[in-house]
Amino acid sequence: MIGRRHHRDDTTGRETAAPTEIPVVAVVSPKGGNGKTTVSSNLAVGLAHRTDSVIIDLDIHFGDVEYALRMRPAHRLDDLVEAGNRRDPMTMLSTHPSGLDVLCAPNDPVAADRLSVDDAFAVVDRIIAAGRPVVLDTAGGISDYSLGALDRATRVVMVCGTDVPSVQAGRKLLDTMRRLDMDLDRVDLLVNRANAHVGLSVDDVETALGRHAVITIPEHSSLAAGMNSGSPVTESSPRSPIAVAFRHYADVLLGIDMAAAVTGRR
Known about the structure:
This protein is an alpha/beta fold and about 270 residues long. It has a single domain (about 15-260), classed as 3-Layer(aba) Sandwich (Rossmann fold). About 40% of the residues lie in helices and about 15% in strands. The strands form two sheets. An eight-stranded mixed β-sheet has the order 5-6-4-7-3-8-9-10, with helices on both faces.
């Protein structure tokens, strides 16, 4: 279980983070269908409950962040690329009811194909430079966009299911990061659908990947319902155990509970 130790601002009554590195969190899954965008959107809303935060959809061809958060963005990643240095990208983000700022993927794959990776990450880098926590949602698999997200991340959340293909893909991702001299100490394992009655146990997944899960998320209808309705559980059911787990992890990222940085499974 993830615990918390709070720091409170006596002038506002709001819990505040201890001084720490501003988190840039890449949420990755080397295999599609593991619930990566569900994780990204819930974590981002959890961060936004604490402080001004941003989520960027880097699944540029088929991104689902706008549906997960029921957004109707006025501007998308390709619009910000086109605007270049003429406008502050922070003024072109869409705002979710939670206060989370959102940058959605291009509207269609044709528009996405016109983007260059360098131009897209020039926008991402300007948003990161604004000094807010940023969640980078990525496409399944390994691409130039996911590698760019990994390069910029202070923490990496690797979403893995309990099926054998997911675990094998997870091992390949870790091997790829190791070969590219990326720091594996910043990789946090999240096991999704942890209570599935088929496949591997969480212990098996941890052993195969060589790391403990910081969060285990049970298979629950509320997650699918939240994705379909565009209402993450951190927003629609904030007292549910799943929402609490996401908020606790957000606290760890923000430095609100440094004692919880070493965590076990729920």
